Amino acid sequence: MNKQSYNMTGLFALSLRLVVGWTYFSAFWRRLIIANKLNPEEAGYIGEKFNHFLPNALGIDGIIEYLVSNPEVLWWAMAAFTIIEGIVGLFIMLGMFTRLMSFGVFSLAIGILLGSGWIGTTCLDEWQIGVLGVASGFMLFFIGSGYYSVDKYFMDRKFKFTKTKWFPYVGSGVLPIKKMKKIVLTGALGIFFLTLYTNQHFHGGVFGTLHNKSVKPKIEISNASIQNNQLKFEIYRVEGADVYGSFLIGIQLLDESGTIVLEKKGDDLARYPLTHIENHYVAKIKPGAHSLIIPLGAKADLTIDLQDVTGINGSSYTLKLIDISGAEWEIKIDR
Questions:
Q1: How many whole angstroms separate alpha carbon 242 and alpha carbon 244?
Q2: Claim to verify: residue 192 and residue 229 sit in the same structural domain
Q3: Which domain holds residue 110?
Q4: pTM for the whole thing?
Q5: Residue 283 · residue 72 · CB < 8 Å
Q6: Total count of domains within the chain
Q7: How does pLDDT run along the chain (335 residues), one tens digit per residue?
Q8: 212 belongs to a structural domain
Q9: Which of 81, 110, 119, 335 has the CB geometry, 3.0–4.6 Å to 126, for a possible disulfide?
């Protein structure tokens, strides 16, 4: 392809460049201009939303867990992430250093896909954003920008840096790569495989039974024990809508015969002492107006005093949690 051909193909991708660019720049715009989403003390803090990705992230869950377990590091990561999204989005819209920014689009989209591709209450929201971003970044690298771009402005005015060997790889114009067809075909097939794999992994969208982990809340209970007149257990919210908490309205402890020896109802949980909740991440379990609120991705150790509870002398018990939706979760406790 010659220079004119690259200018025309870049022109044909103008609408994609503008829309993809705004998709990323708008994240910066929303978090810093329209509202302050980088304040850990305010509702809507982006770090808490990032915490929502954790339970079912693919391959990067260790990174996410480290960040949400260290609030100061998380804030810096979210600030850097927001600035990078703003720069990448703005430069892609302007067609400035397009190929370098296309790598940014590709990388950001991979992060979205692997981190939150499983989230979406009514459709496969985050998965679609992720795979389309990956494909768009890949395509924009090979196309670059043509007419109506800053890259072309630089090249038309023969800025010195546009004559360097590296500019075609970070800007626009004729891309000096051999075996272009094979490279594009290999990359396209790789991205298509990634699309099918993640669609199946997150949603069962290729074969088998479809599933959506964003519809119903699910809580995992672990490390349950009764010692020193205290009931201790860990809960972790791993499924359900990211914008809506799980509302715990009941905690029951049942003996071997099924008799309830301890029961905490909604009003009791609304007054649950904060000193008995040890949160692990930035998304925090806390008492609400009528229940115990458990956000998506939140994990905490809970303690209930048993000094005034009679009948705690058996060898086996069942701990049951009851959600306002009617969902129940249980775990056996052997003393």
A1: 6
A2: no
A3: 3-203
A4: 0.91
A5: no
A6: 2
A7: 677 888 899 999 999 999 999 999 999 999 999 999 999 988 889 999 999 999 999 999 999 999 999 999 999 999 999 999 999 999 999 999 999 999 999 999 999 999 999 998 878 889 999 999 999 999 999 999 999 999 999 999 999 999 999 999 999 999 999 999 999 999 999 999 999 999 999 999 999 999 999 999 999 999 999 998 999 999 999 999 998 889 999 999 999 999 999 999 999 999 999 999 999 999 999 999 999 999 999 999 999 999 888 878 888 999 999 999 999 999 999 98
A8: no
A9: 119
Q: Which of 203, 233, 268 is the last residue of a domain?
A: 203
One domain, residues 270 and 194: no
212 token code pair: 């959506």
Both 181 and 268 in one domain: the answer is no
CATH number of the domain residue 330 falls in: 2.60.40.1930
Residue 296 lies in a domain: yes
Structural domain contains residue 213: no
